[in-house]
Write a structure and sequence with these properties.
This protein has 442 residues and is of the alpha/beta class. It is built from 16 helices and 17 strands.
Length: 442
């Protein structure tokens, strides 16, 4: 897995983790010659100067809805990993050259089909997020071809935020230079830990030195927006070790930091087998507070439960999720939100490719949200952020649910929830305990 840790639940929770899109169930849950791309061993996308037009049947549920907003995002899932981390529950696939070739062909078909929707010409793509999996397994030419296809078929904002989740061992200077030239302007670097004993124990392939080397390579390539992912609550991680890791990473002067507490999610190796050596709950809580203090002392804003940023460096893509904005889903297992519909693509790469080769979008599940579900989402997602939610919206929800009313009143009395003008937000202590409130909101 790349920049997103997968530590605190997958897209379905919906975190989103570093950059993952919320899943559907938020509410509650031929023959053209090809040249081999340099440095990757993967052939480029098929040459299709004029993509075929598609009918409404190919679009599935996307023919029955339309974005309500002019500016939207795109979440693009690259499932391949050299090795799957033991904590990861995201949709992944073993790295395989033939599978990657088929995936890339299918992805370009998917872009073309979505771009043929009746509303596509009316929207602008403001953010593009490559998540995984390990998107940094894409070579520069491969990634360039994807972005060029998006720009050819959609209106992409001149200042669009384009993020690539990356693992340290899959980055180098030449690749980063190609990413930068292609229009990538933000790297999310999956470091996760800075202890060379813990890193292999959780399934990572890099060491602490390689993590710092990758970060420096990002800066040398001209990236002004670099985020780092860390995890706390890991087996064998004590408070002193966590504090050293925070200070080391903050000393690199990243622009953004995401930190997730380990959870043993279904779909992960550890979720199935369990794991020994987990720190006690009071140590995990202390690790949370150590991070909050150290980040604040370095001028970082704790702007979302698991995310910290220097002024002006919030993740624009993730804010689409938390502000309940709309975004397209591309890739196997990717999730999207258009109009009043949340949807998710099929997960297996072979099934994903087969559907697209047959001319249909690979949508697996979808849900059209009710007004009540939309309100619950707006509150749940908004309260994850330092911006909070409108007071009247929270009060309207509480008026219909006595248990929620009692919870809100108690949290205010305990200093976990605060009002500022016409907005209500969680305090730092409230962030730590937020799951209890979110359960009642949804």
């Amino acid at each position: 897995m790349g920049g997103g840790s997968g530590a605190a639940g997958g897209p379905s929770d919906p975190r989103p983790s570093g950059a993952r899109s919320p899943l559907v169930a938020i509410s509650i849950d031929g023959n053209s010659p090809r040249s081999t791309l340099r440095g990757t061993g993967h052939p480029g996308p098929p040459a299709t100067p004029e993509p075929p037009r598609t009918g409404p049947g190919a679009l599935g549920v996307l023919a029955e809805t339309a974005p309500s907003q002019a500016a939207i995002g795109v979440y693009l899932h690259v499932p391949f990993c050299t090795k799957k981390c033991y904590f990861c529950s995201f949709n992944t696939a073993p790295m395989d050259d033939a599978a990657m070739r088929r995936y890339l062909d299918a992805l370009h078909r998917e872009i073309d089909i979505v771009a043929d929707s009746p509303w596509a010409s009316r929207v602008r793509l403001d953010t593009i997020f490559f998540g995984g999996g390990t998107p940094s397994l894409l070579g520069g030419p491969e990634l360039t071809a994807i972005l060029e296809r998006l720009r050819a078929r959609f209106v992409v904002a001149a200042d669009a935020e384009v993020t690539v989740e990356s693992n340290p061992e899959s980055l180098d200077g030449p690749k980063l230079a190609q990413y930068r030239a292609a229009g990538v302007n933000r790297i999310s670097l999956g470091v996760q830990a800075m202890d060379d004993a813990i890193l292999p124990a959780i399934g990572r392939l890099h060491d602490a030195t390689a993590a710092r080397t990758a970060f420096d390579a990002c800066r040398a390539a001209g990236f002004d927006h670099v985020s780092v992912d860390l995890m706390y609550g890991l087996p064998g991680l004590d408070l002193d070790g966590w504090t050293r890791a925070i200070r080391a990473v903050l000393g690199w002067e990243p622009d953004h930091l995401s930190a997730y507490g380990l959870t043993l999610d279904e779909g992960s190796l550890w979720g199935a087998t369990g794991v020994s050596g987990l720190p006690p709950e009071d140590t995990v809580v202390s690790q949370y507070w150590a991070l909050a203090r150290e980040a604040a002392a370095r001028g970082f804003e704790h702007y979302e439960v698991s995310n910290y940023a220097r002024p002006g460096h919030r993740s624009r893509h993730n804010q689409i999720y938390w502000r309940r904005g709309e975004y397209l889903a591309l890739g196997p297992g990717a999730c999207g939100f258009v109009g009043d519909v949340r949807y998710a693509n099929v997960k297996p790469v072979s099934r994903y490719a087969s559907l697209l080769e047959a001319g249909a979008l690979p949508i697996d599940t979808s849900e059209r949200l009710t007004t009540a579900q939309a309100l619950a989402e707006r509150l749940f997602l908004g309260l994850r952020t330092a911006d909070g939610v409108p007071r009247e919206a929270l009060e309207a929800r509480a008026a219909t649910t006595p248990a929620l009313r009692r919870r809100i009143d108690a949290w205010r009395a305990d200093g976990l929830l605060e009002a500022d003008g016409n907005r209500v937000r969680l305090t730092e202590r409230g962030f730590l305990l937020s799951d209890a409130l979110f359960v009642e909101l949804i």
